[in-house]
Write a structure and sequence with these properties.
globular, 210 residues, 7 strands, Spore Coat Polysaccharide Biosynthesis Protein SpsA, Chain A, alpha/beta
């Protein structure tokens, strides 16, 4: 099995303990050290995750790119199991998928040379934060290049999973004005894309109420 160079892109705004936990899990992956590149990108001044991830893409040397974060960690076989599948985008198993599949693409690995087919970026930089993973999944799924890998396991310590209060980082990302902007934009882009994901109806109903 060919083992490609993989770039882990980890944008962060504070959360030093979370960064250390994620980096530790990258170091413990069952994958050769010389085949791993890690880019930790501080969001200072704050430009947002989509922009920082795009900066990471431009700096990366890897054949594959992994979206990491300061609120998650990888299980040791996550990457090696994901690479068994030939899809351009392989989403990791971060836990139960919601009925509307809105969280199916929380963290993932993607082929760098596939990016021109989806607009040249992993995350659409028109967004502040939320919804970029949903749009990415739909773009790749439309091209039959999206796959959720049950054996590529990671843990996502998102506040919605842990039940903890939002910290300052989450409050910035999930600010109501920012959230509305991103969700309105997401609905527009999905309709233009022409797919009909399960979560679209729920998203539109939410927008009607706020």
């Amino acid at each position: 099995m060919h083992l490609p160079l993989i770039t882990f892109i980890l944008p962060t705004l504070g959360r030093r303990a979370g960064v250390d936990r994620c980096v530790s899990s990258i170091n413990k992956l069952n994958y050769p050290e010389e085949k791993k590149e890690l880019l930790i990108i501080e969001d200072q001044p704050r430009l947002g995750v989509p922009t920082r991830v795009h900066q990471g893409v431009n700096l990366s040397k890897g054949e594959y790119l992994v979206y990491a974060a300061n609120d998650m960690e990888f299980k040791p076989d996550c990457i090696i199991n994901a690479l068994k599948h030939r899809n351009a985008l392989v989403a990791f198993n971060c836990g139960p998928i919601l009925p509307d599949e809105g969280n199916i693409c929380e963290h993932f690995i993607i082929k760098k040379d596939f990016l021109p087919q989806i607009g040249g970026k992993i995350f659409d930089t028109d967004f502040n934060h939320t919804g970029v993973d949903n749009l990415l999944w739909e773009r790749c799924k439309k091209l039959d290049e999206a796959f959720w890998c049950i054996d590529a396991k990671a843990i996502h310590y998102h506040y919605s999973r842990t039940g903890e209060e939002m910290d300052e980082g989450y409050k910035l990302a999930w600010d109501q004005d920012s959230l509305r902007h991103d969700r309105e934009l997401l609905v527009q882009k999905i309709k233009k894309l022409g797919t009909n994901p399960k979560w679209l109806f729920t998203m539109e109903k939410w927008l009607e109420k706020v």
